[in-house]
Here is the input.
Amino acid sequence: MRPVVGSPIRGIAYMVAALFLLTVGDALTKWVGSSLPVGQVIFFRALFIFIPTMAIVFTSGGLATLKVTDRRGVGTRAVLYCCTTALITTSMILLPLADASALLFAGPLFVTALATPMLGEYVGWRRWTAVLVGFVGVIIMLRPTPDAIQVLAVVPIVAALFSAFRDITTRRISATESSNAIMFWSNVVLLAAAALTAPFGWEPMRFADLAQLALLGIIVGVAHWVMIEAYRFGEAAVVSPFKYTAIVWATLLGYFVWGTVPDAFIISGGALVIASGLYILHRETRRKAG
Here is the structure.
């Protein structure tokens, strides 16, 4: 579908809405994950994601769009998607919502750092400086002490690293594979991988649990569609910075649902990470314009 010209406000609104839905999904993950194993949560989330996914497929080209050319690339991306999903889900369950969200913002920093060795893309000294500043922010959020760092906070950092590998792989295969195929087959592999955890202690579910997981899957699937629409109505350089509204939604939901408030480490470190990400986006936009 061709981009719609001259609708930046609509694109921004779609992006803000997408990040709100994703954060609500994270909150639901945290809520349901307090009583169910991670693998079980991921399985049913992936199962119900197929509802909006197939709706998207049948309204944007049909089953023909699920054909795969680069099986190895799509398979690699699916495995990275599984690892990322498992780590992000674990992060949301173990950490306060705003803390996990802030730490996951390290993902774009990893993408920039890995762009040269993995994609052969040129990264100038300004962007390298921004990456280093961003990692200082990550270190602040990890709260290092002479004895140790916050061990649980390492989980979303590793999740951010895997998400960077996933995004770089997506960039590699997007030249030959459709978005529908990448999204669909990644979710199929995720569903199969999560099913393998069933013998290791899945819990009996109430109808309320199943309903919450169904809502979770549908919300996440719709959120990704809304994000696609955001990029259709507005240029990436305009709408992408509004991804950082996630920290606002996460803070609000964390406070009103769980009574948690980000501490000074998360606020100051997160500010550095967000500033670095915005600067990297600015430099990337100028590079492409040039």
About this structure: Residues 8-289 form one domain. The chain has a mean pLDDT of 89. DSSP finds twelve helices and no strands in the chain.
